[in-house]
Structure formats: structure tokens, C-alpha cells
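Page 42, continued from yesterday. The earlier attempt failed because a stray header line got pasted into the input along with the sequence. Redoing it now with the clean sequence only.
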Amino acid sequence: MTLRKGKTKSTLESSIESALLAVEIYNKPRTPFRVEGFITQMIIAWTRLFHAHFNHTIGSKYYHKNSNGRYQTIDGEKKSWELKTCISKFGTLEAGVKSNLTFFIKLRNKIEHRHIDRDEIGIMIFGECQSLLYNYENTLIEFFGEDYALNESLSFSIQFSRLRKKSQIQASKKLLSKEIKELKTFIDNYRTSLSDEVFNTQEYSIKLIQVPKIANTNRNDLAVEFVNWNSISEADRENYEKVTAIIKDKVLKKEAINPGKRKPGDVVTKINSEIEFEFNHYDHKCLYCCFKIRPASANDIDDPFDTNTNYCHYDEVHNDYIYQDQWAELIIACINSGKLTKKMWRSKFKKRESFDILDFETAE
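This time it went through. C-alpha cells are written below.
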């Protein structure tokens, strides 16, 4: 398909430029805010790709309207559909593609006011980043044809592969800021919320193994080859599974593991048995909200799995939350040491302010 000059073509070209800029940012190892830059530009690229598709198929109708039928405006300009709305309006994305996009929309919202220029996060989400780009190009071709494929414009990123000693890895982990820990918790929770069927798709996250080619191959062969999982034999798949069984870092679905967890009433009872004043369910709500260990409610929220898994887990079967012993012990320790008082947490809760939990964990 060759587009004529007009809004569809200019929007599509803008989308492609954003995707190419995202790759350029990601592949420059010394670029500040590398991960944030890649995610932001890819969100823009996807949004404009949908806008170009909608403009080509339904015309200029991808804008929000008020209840009176008039368009919503921002600074005099019509408010176009954001990516989440575009996904909903399009309606036929594969589950893996949709889950990957939803992951990055939520992650983008979380990093908007944070600095996460750390290699650890980039390494953690490499597979999702690769799939975000892979899915973008496939969707681009689906919408507008092979003429707009990006593969000839892209090159593979060269990665440093020197192995770090165990002590270096441990030291690196200690440097992780509170923001990084919260983002890691979000990533783990999001992944465990997915079904195995979706999580294992290349559309959600591409898993790569780097194996040196040492066989007698043709000297004209590429140094790097990507093989489609669906095109390889069953025997090769079994060999792959044997390799990944050795190196795979499996994420446990901890949110549904009930043994050793406490219900809210059990938490209140345990706390009351070890402090000198009455502690009730309202006090408990004040504390879990102020410490942000879980969402305020299990209903009508985007992500019930967004918890601090050191203290709390979402129980999907019963649509409620259960708590680790460490949560009650933290509260007891802080009350008995004088670091927390009922007046403090009730005042914070009423003002919708929060505590930094790291400041209180040392009281245990």
C-alpha cells in the first residue's frame, strides 16, 4: 500500500520516526534515561500507529466527546484517544500483544515521575521491550503493508557479556533505590497475573538465548539468526526446553499462596495482643493505605496485584487481600518503639499522605 499525502501518511510517518528514535535511544548504552526514553517513544509510536489506522479506516473520529456530543479539547485542540482507548476501540488484538501493551502503559505511568536509569530494570524487561518493537512492526505491516516494514532500518544491539561475580551482583542489588524496588514488585506482580499461555507467547515477551555458532557454517551466513518458535521441529523444542530448564529464572505466583498468611482480622488480633492500646480495623486500613502495601480496595481498580509482596498478596480466588506475618510484626515493632502512634497514622490517612516504609523497617 502506498499512501498519498495527507493526515494518515503524516501520522504514520510520525509513528515510524518515534519507533526508530526509541530503538536509537535503547541501543546507545550511555544515553541518560535510556529505558524511560525507549518506553515513552514506543508508546507514542503505537498511539500514532492506531491514529493513522483509524484515520485511514473510519476517518477523523478518534477523539473523545462530551455527553452533549461535542469534542473534548485541550488548549483548543481536540483530545484524541490515548493508547489504552485505542486498544479498546480496535478490539481484535491478540492476547499476548494486548498484555504486552498494557504492561508498558502501566509501567510508563509508574515511571513518569521517577528516574530509573538502572541496568537492572532494562535487563529485567528486555524480553518485553523486544516484543513491544516486534509487535509494532507486525501491526504496522498488517495495517499498511510490507512497504512500511522497519527491519531494513534496524540493527542488532551489541551487548557487553562479561560475567559479573556474585559479590558484584549482590552489591548492585543493594544499590537499588526504593523506586526500583517498587517497579520490580510491579513487574513481578504483572507477570504472575498472566496465564501461562499468554506469558509464554513471543507477543508478550521474547526470550532469547545467545549461543555461539561453532559449527562449519557457510561463511556468508549471518552472525545472528532469529528462529520463529512455530517453525521449528518438536525435537528442537524439546532440546530448547532442556536448556532453558537450566537457566530459567521462574517467577512464583505468590499472590495465591495462602499457607502462612493472615486475614485482616488475624492481623488486628495479633497486634492487639502485643501493644498497650486498642487497635481496630480502621487503624489497619489507615496503615496499609499510608504505607501503600496494597490498593485501597479490591474492587473497581486497574491492578489489584499491585502490592508490596513483602507484606501483602492479592488472593484472586476470593477477591481480597491476605497478609504476611512480617506486616503485623512491622506494625508492632514500630508502635512499641514509639516510631508510630495512632494520631500519626490517622492524621496521615485523613490528609491522604503516605509514609516511606523504608524509614520504619529499621525499627523491627
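Notes: The first strand starts at residue 73 and ends at 74.
Reminder to self: strip header lines before submitting.
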